[in-house]
Design brief:
Layout lengths: L2 H7 L3 H55 L3 H5 L2 E8 L7 E2 H15 L1 E15 L4 E14 L5 E15 L2 E15 L7 E2 L5
Parallel strand pairs: 1-6, 6-7
Antiparallel strand pairs: 1-2, 3-4, 4-5, 5-6
């Protein structure tokens, strides 16, 4: 006969008190585990929310730094080995150095003014340190060498990595739904099911 069965079968006050204490101990152990699980989940949720805000801010800062001609700050948003693909007419840029050279040249020699607008930001976490997003982009471009304003409607597809506790853009690919007087004739098309 097991201990609990023996205790339960003999109804002495002392045995009933032991059973009550065993129940309390079991409840406390279960409560402690529930409490630990609860706080672990709260901390993971908090970390995810903070990561989401930090990542969305990266994309917004990219637009801000592009529009305000701050290529140094813009390039600092990327990981060291980042890949940037602005379309099939231009070779993808690999690393911060290539990105800085091309972006600063464009901001200095091609654009007189730009205005980038982000919406429909959708973010998914692939792991604690990796994420990817799709955001819609409307971009307005005034050029230095022509009167017409260039327009782009499309999407940014980003990948992000967390390095030393900070989120960075590791991959950016630009897709277009439509362009008008844009400085490129061909863009990556947005996939759309028929």
């Amino acid at each position: 006969m097991g201990l609990f069965t023996a205790l339960f079968c003999s109804y002495s006050a002392q045995n009933i008190e032991i059973l009550r204490l065993c129940n309390i101990l079991l409840l406390c152990t279960s409560y402690r585990k529930l409490k630990q699980d609860f706080w672990r989940e709260i901390m993971q949720t908090n970390e995810t929310l903070v990561g989401r805000i930090e990542i969305e801010d990266l994309v917004k800062k990219y637009c801000l730094y592009f529009d305000t001609n701050q290529p140094e700050k813009l390039v600092d948003l990327f990981s060291e080995d980042a890949c940037i693909d602005y379309g099939p007419e231009v070779a993808p840029l690999h690393g911060k150095s290539e990105a800085f050279t091309m972006i600063s040249r464009g901001l200095t020699n091609l654009f007189a003014q730009t205005s980038h607008h982000i919406s429909n930001f959708i973010l998914d976490f692939d792991s604690d340190d990796l994420a990817h997003s799709v955001s819609y982009i409307y971009a307005w471009h005034r050029y230095q060498d022509k009167e017409e304003i260039g327009y782009l409607w499309g999407q940014y597809h980003h990948k992000f990595t967390r390095e030393n506790g900070s989120w960075k853009i590791s991959d950016l690919k630009l897709f277009a739904v439509n362009i008008d007087n844009f400085h490129r004739a061909t863009m990556h098309p947005v996939d759309r099911k028929q």
